[in-house]
Each structure stands twice: as C-alpha cells, then as structure tokens.
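Notebook, bench 3.
Goal today: get a predicted structure for Flagellar biosynthetic protein FlhB from Natronospira elongata so we can plan the truncation constructs. The sequence was checked against the plasmid map this morning, with no discrepancies at the termini. Length recorded as 104 residues. Pasting the sequence as submitted so the record is complete.
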Amino acid sequence: MSEHSSSRNDAELAVALHYDGEGAPEVTAKGRRKLAAEILELAESHGIPIHEDPELVQFLARLEVGDQIPRALYVAVAEVIAFAYWVSGRSPKNTSDQDTDGTT
C-alpha cells in the first residue's frame, strides 16, 4: 500500500500487510521515502499486488510492525485484500473444504 501514486520510486510512505486467512491482517513492514520505495520494489518483484490509498496508509503507518489491524479498519483492509486476490487471480483459503485433520 502506497501513499504516492506518480512513481513507485517517489513513494513517501508504504505499509505491507500479511493475511493468512485467520485472525486480522498484520503489518509486516512499513517505511518512508527510500524504505517505502524498497518495500514497493520488493512487492513488485514477488508479484504482490499493490494498492494505493493515501488515507488508509496514513492510518496503517501508525501501527507497529507485527500489530494486527484494528477493528475500525477491517472493512477498508478487507477491500484491499479482496482487490489483491482479484488482481492475482487467487482466492482465500476455504476452511469449510478441509477435513478435521486440516488437510483438503
């Protein structure tokens, strides 16, 4: 997620989130200026979708790395996660298809 939309190299602020399908998404990286650009470059090199939302990234940047997102941001972040799944052609884990031992 990036605050700046003109160029990835000019990103002022970036926040990376991880969601494993359980619990709330958590902040895995955040940074300003050069670190923000590095976060975005790393995401791009690994095919991780990038969503730009200046207001949301400002809120997420207040969290510490390792923090789960607060309930107040669930809907906004859920939209970002849905976007990421859609762009990558993937879908979230479907736990209803798992056997009792956790296998599918």
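The first strand starts at residue 13 and ends at 18. The domain at 8-93 is CATH 3.40.1690.10 (name from scop).
Flagging this for group meeting.
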